[in-house]
Specification:
The chain is an alpha+beta fold. The protein has helices spanning 19-26, 29-35, 43-60, 109-123, 139-147, and strands at residues 4-5, 9-13, 64-69, 78-87, 94-100, 129-134, 151-158, 161-169. The chain has five helices and eight strands; from the N terminus they run ββαααβββαβαββ.
């Protein structure tokens, strides 16, 4: 399984052993407001999500990464959140997702992570495009998505919510020929 790296960040696939830090992340006030509509998940819900993230890597060869801010040594790295790719509902599309602790916001980590993960998606997985769903009131996520190339396609209804549907294509990353990747999402 891949390990991705930038000058400031280290990303490795989410593992079952990450349950405690992921639960802390999922109950962070900014995360609860941005992703969970104000209702923090219970620990068993987070455990179910972590298991899903691990299965995604096993089944698809891609998934969410645990993200760490590098320290002076490997054991000083600080867990910052999760970011990565997942299958989008019952389609051939692959969705990008990002979730960082509130105290990590505003430091440029979102775009830094996004660029590396999207380049991996296009170059290594051979995807033609990646999609993202963002709640219209999540202005921070919209700005971060635009910085890494996502463009708004349309608003869609999901249950009782409307979310913006965004996409970015491999050609925006200078790649004109891809392999079609998982599910050949030429969309």
């Amino acid at each position: 399984m891949p390990v991705l790296e930038t000058q400031r960040l280290l990303m490795r696939p989410v593992a079952i052993s990450d349950l405690e830090v992921v639960h802390r992340l999922h109950t962070d006030p900014l995360v609860v407001q941005s992703l969970f509509s104000g209702e923090p998940p219970a620990r068993p819900d987070t455990q179910e999500k972590v298991e899903l993230y691990v299965r995604s890597w096993q089944q698809n060869g891609f998934g969410f990464f645990s993200v760490f801010v590098k320290g002076n040594s490997p054991d000083q790295a600080e867990f910052a959140g999760r970011a990565g790719l997942r299958r989008f509902e019952d389609t051939n599309d692959v969705e990008y997702g990002l979730c960082l602790f509130g105290h990590m916001a505003g430091r440029g980590f979102g775009p830094e992570l996004g660029r590396v993960i999207l380049r991996h998606a296009f170059e290594k997985l051979g995807l033609d495009r990646v999609v993202a769903l963002i709640r219209p009131e999540n202005e921070r996520a919209i700005r971060a998505a635009r910085k890494i190339g996502f463009g708004h396609v349309e608003d869609r209804h999901y249950g009782h919510q409307v979310k913006g549907f965004y996409e970015v294509r491999a050609s925006q990353y200078g790649l004109t020929e891809t392999r079609g990747g998982p599910g050949r999402n030429a969309g």
